[in-house]
Every structure is written in C-alpha cells, then in structure tokens.
Amino acid sequence: MKTVIAILLLVGAGIYFLLPEKNELTPKEFAEALKSDGNKILIDLRSNYDFSKGHISGATNIDSNWSTFEWRIAELETDQSVFIYCQNGEQSKKSAAYLKSQGFNSVTILKGGLKQWLKDEYILTPEELIPPSELTFKDFIRILELEHLVIVDFYLPGDRNCRAMGVLLDELALSYDGAVKILRIDIDNYKYLASEMGIEVTPTLQFYENGNLCGTLEGVMSIDRINNAFHLKEYNAMADK
Description:
Elements: H1 2-18, E1 24-25, H2 27-36, E2 40-44, H3 48-53, E3 60-61, H4 69-74, E4 81-85, H5 90-101, E5 107-110, H6 113-119, H7 137-145, E6 149-155, H8 160-175, E7 181-186, H9 191-196, E8 204-209, E9 212-218, H10 223-230, H11 232-240
Parallel strand pairs: 1-5, 2-3, 2-4, 4-5, 6-7
Antiparallel strand pairs: 6-8, 8-9
C-alpha cells in the first residue's frame, strides 16, 4: 500500500512539473502583476522610434531586433521578475525563450502585445522627442528650441538608477499630459555630445524652456524634487491661465 501511494505521489509530482507556467497574461492581469511585484523590470522590445511614440509607463526600451539586445540583457539582474511586451505578442515569445536560457526564472509576456493593451483601453505615455542617429550640439539645441518645456535625460541603459529615473519621468510626463516633453539621450550612443556638454554623472536631468537651459539635477531623485527644482507646477499653472 505504501509503495502504491509513493508511486502515485511521484507521478503526481511529475505531472505538476510538466505543467507549463502561465507566463502570458491578459492586459488586466499584466497591469495587476506589475503593480504587485516590487522587484521587476518592464521591457519594451520594440524599436526606439516606436518606444518614443508611446509605451507602457515604467518600461525600459531594449530593442529585440537590435545588435545590442544580448549585451543589454546581460546587464540585467537575473533575480528580477521580467515583464516583456512587443507590438502583437509574437516577438515576446521568442525573447522569453532567450531570457529563460540566460537564467531568468520569472518571465511574463503581455498576451496580444500593445495591440491588445490599447484595445482594452489601457493608456501609454505621451509621445517623446526622438533624437536622430547623428546628433551634434547644434542639432540638439535646434530640437529643444522647437518645444516649450523639455526635460533631457542623460542616461546609461544598463544602469539601475537610470532605469529608476526613467520610471519617474514616465509618471511625470503622464501627470502633465505631455505638456513637458521628455528627450532621452543614451550617452553610450551620443558620447561626443555628452562630452561636449560635460555630462559626467548618470542620470543627469536638464530642464529647458524654449531652448534655454533653466536647471540641472544629477543622480536619483523624487518627482517632488524634480517639480520643485524645475518649478514645473508654476509653468503648468501659467499654461492653464
């Protein structure tokens, strides 16, 4: 009798471990899981251009079709829960398999991708400014002069503090409904510009009004500190009048 019970337990355990983990979540489940997981990273697998057009708040952009994809993934901590999404969900499945092979145990996919996310009426961040592939200082200033209020984020993509700042900037952009534009400058890609501007610390935020530099902040900080240092609420109040 004991032998039969032991066999049944082993068979049951085997069936349990063969069952696939539910790693594809509907937009509602995905949103709830993001809120409840305190040790996570949310990855947008689309191009930088698509990311800048609007993304899920708090996402880090790692283009799965770019040559640096594997290098960028290697910079992440494998003990984090990874949430990924693409446009329709297909690229996420391929990327999830790669992440699993690299030692990431918790990988969750947005089922149906952003197409389903928007269909279910979940929001994206406001559109951001997109730097060209080649960016001189003159080009940089020209971009800023075309907008009223801009926060420039000089960051390193593999730095955890920079990712945390990116999350705060998404929240800030949403709170001002896009009235304050965000321009993200990856100093790995724009080394010459960062050097010319004397950027030595990441993250570094610079606030511009009509192309004029009005303030600089370095390191990780709260949204309140950003608002107070750059007087954003005063600008917003003036815009409402």
